[in-house]
Amino acid sequence: MLVTLAQSGFTLVLTLLGLLVITFSLSALSPVDPVLQIVGDHASASTYQQVRHQLGLDQPLVMQFWHYFVNLLHGDLGTASATGQPVLQDLFSAFPATLELATLSLIVGAVVGILCGVLCARYAGSFFDTVIRTLTLLGNSVPIFWLGLLMLSLFYARLQWSAGPGRLDDIYQYSVEPRTGFALIDTWLSGDPEAFRNALSHLVLPVSLLGYYALASITRLTRAACLSELGKEYITLARAKGASEMTILWRHVLPNIRGTLLTVLALVWTSQLEGAVLTETVFSWPGIGRYLTTALFAGDTKAIMGGTLVIGICFVLINNLTDVLVRVTDPRTH
């Protein structure tokens, strides 16, 4: 176990270093000139060269990467030109919103998706199976921004069943102290039940949207994994002993596919963290996705690099943690 953990740690360090090199290289190849972002198009040549020297852009790329790496170790990701604040501070403010949205969506998608996947495997080929498979196929096909706009138009603008864009209404936006950055926790700690209900109502539409896309993948993969297990010999033995189909699925099949389920849930969670850009834009959700969108339109390379690194680090850490959990919980991988 210690050797496995050491190997995983070494692989993690190499992966993060590779991610840093690739991110820096893509930033260096970007057509956006960070000097012009500061001095403007009408600055003199001497001013341009002076700012370029101050930023260290007149040095070789190897030296630029070394300085960036050293600053990164000290927690310095540079200053975002769009906000005028340190990129790290912006990311700390935006990341809890994305994490809250992605985690709640994963919980909804996992609970409903696993249940639907098991039922589809139990009643494979039935009308229920066909309907669920059609809905999951739509979940993997329909553009997420279009469905988000449709949900806002129907449930918020016309029916007024839920709150609109943003995390809180204006009346609560500045009255609730942002202690943790998570809207549900902060409104709960504020002691104002109306603020908590308001935060919950703002989460309904984006969580339902991302949860639908999550359960689409989880349902299909759970169904396929269950059907694969149902054809094995130990299932035949369980049936010979008189076990019902649902008992076989819940007590025998699901424990044997837990490694697959953990992997699927990890992939869905990371895709929610990195792929919520359009959802956050549609619902004006102040997370990493919206922050990166604003940085892209502003040509803010420091903010883009910082946001990309955060998402990449989350992706690497979650996948490595999943590998460890699969090895610990599934004796067949030993």
UniProtKB/TrEMBL annotation:
What keywords would UniProt list here?
Answer: Cell inner membrane, Cell membrane, Membrane, Transmembrane, Transmembrane helix, Transport
- Name one molecular function that GO assigns to this entry: dipeptide transmembrane transporter activity
Q: What does UniProt give as GO cellular component?
A: plasma membrane
The UniProt record lists the keyword GTP-binding: no
Which residue windows are transmembrane per the record?
Answer: 101-125, 137-157, 195-215, 261-283, 303-322
InterPro entries in the record = BPD_transp_1_N, MetI-like, MetI-like_sf
**Which Pfam families does the entry mention?**
BPD_transp_1, BPD_transp_1_N
Where the record annotates domain ABC transmembrane type-1, the positions are: 95-326
Q: How does it sit in the membrane?
A: Multi-pass membrane protein
Q: Which Gene3D superfamilies match?
A: MetI-like
Name the predominant localization: membrane
Q: Which SUPFAM superfamilies match?
A: MetI-like
Where is this gene product found?
Cell inner membrane; Cell membrane
The family note in this entry says: Belongs to the binding-protein-dependent transport system permease family.
Any idea what this protein is called?
Peptide ABC transporter permease
Specify the species: Mangrovibacter phragmitis
